[in-house]
Design brief:
269 residues, alpha+beta, two-stranded antiparallel sheet, 18% strand
Length: 269
């Protein structure tokens, strides 16, 4: 799986360099680059983040240059059944279905995550409002999965939410995405996801809902499995904010992938 994900990272990097589009590897992928010079040995995914303007430019200008024999770009505009708040680059000819998501109609395949980060308000009260707004949108998108994997009142509640159209959610979300600018001084976050930062609820309120934009805009190259990829220049500041003591290995019983898979196919090639 990691070899396939490395192919996807290389193809994504190639196209971004071709069009001079900025990105950074993030989360466990950035940690792996620093601590292991590649994948965390037990990791099963790879993460890319981009500011909203770069993400939209990638969709507009660069997607046509992706090699379809290698991958396809998936978000709510290219797959009407896709229900997540970030995009995936999926390996052509593969399948990857998570436990509990067998009934979803969206396209599948081994993937890397491409996460667009948006501005958050400067004002803390407005940050709280934005966070609640995004929480509601996230639950609506998740409802199609949750209604099959919950019981009682939750099952009924998520069944009702699942009737709200996906398009409506993304239209609501544009209230924030349309305002994001690379040049602004706002902090940023991935809107339709739990606010970034492990144990973020223990952080001070003014550091809870977003991270400094320089961790995306100020970049350096890192060698990841022998391949040069861009990451945050201040890797230490980002990784400490995200993971704490990031050089300390987790206990052996915590060294596992992110999600159980009910079916996987690596394709013929």
């Amino acid at each position: 799986m990691q070899l396939i994900e490395l192919d996807l990272l290389k193809e994504f990097d190639r196209v971004c360099r071709l069009h001079n589009i900025s990105y950074v590897i993030t989360d466990g992928t950035m940690l792996g680059a620093v601590r292991h010079h590649g994948f965390i040995p037990w990791d099963d995914d790879a993460d890319i983040c981009m500011l909203r303007e770069d993400y939209e430019r990638f969709k507009k200008e660069a997607m046509k240059d992706l090699n379809p024999d290698i991958c396809f770009f998936q978000d709510n505009t290219t797959d009407p059944y896709y229900r997540w708040g970030y995009a995936k680059l999926r390996r052509s000819g593969t399948q990857h279905i998570r436990v509990g998501q067998e009934h979803l109609k969206c396209k599948t395949g081994i993937f890397i995550d491409i996460m667009p980060y948006d501005d958050i308000p400067h004002n803390l009260c407005l940050q709280l409002i934005q966070n609640f707004y995004c929480f509601c949108c996230r639950k609506i998108l998740w409802s199609e999965v949750a209604k099959k994997n919950t019981s009682g009142f939750k099952k009924l509640w998520f069944s009702l939410l699942s009737h709200i159209s996906i398009k409506t959610v993304y239209d609501f979300l544009s209230i924030y995405t349309s305002r994001s600018r690379n040049s602004s001084t706002n902090r940023v976050r991935l809107l339709l996801f739990i606010p970034p930062g492990r144990e973020y609820t223990k952080k001070p309120l003014n550091d809870r809902y977003g991270m400094t934009k320089k961790w995306i805009t100020e970049r350096a190259e890192y060698i990841f499995e022998g391949v040069p990829l861009y990451g945050s220049r201040d890797y230490d500041g980002f990784l400490r904010w995200k993971f704490g003591d990031y050089m300390k290995l987790p206990p052996e019983d915590k060294r596992c992938g992110h999600a159980q898979v009910s079916f996987i196919s690596f394709g013929e090639k």
